[in-house]
Amino acid sequence: MVTVTLLVAVVGSLANSGMALVGLLVLLPAAAAAQCTVRQTALVCAWTALLGSAAFLTGGSDVALADRVLLLVLTACLIAASLYARRRRINSERSMVRLHSAAVAIQRQILRPLPLRTDDVLVDGAYEPVQEDRLVGGDIYDVVESAW
To answer: How far apart are alpha carbons 100 and 134 in whole angstroms?
Structure first.
């Protein structure tokens, strides 16, 4: 967050168009919503709102009021969308945890534990689904003592 802000400030100063580049900071909340925790995303959103408000208030006479209002509205909309996306991501992660727990319970019911030892063989095994994105599925295995 700080790095991107500094980068935008430096490039804006070099290009003599700091106000125009402040609009790039509205992408910070979206990036935070995709990768950060709830607190980190809220912090990035607050930071972006603060910078957007500061840009609105200190836009200067060379920047039209309509452009400053548009930047403020765009910032507010993207912050709201980022907070919504973060909530959806967290709910999705919780659903995946519940689904994984259910899959583990099903596996335990279907696949009984292998015996550790038969008369002549020490046994060990692991269950891995055929496809990575599937939690249940694949081959069933068992060990049985027999004459063959």
So the answer is: 10
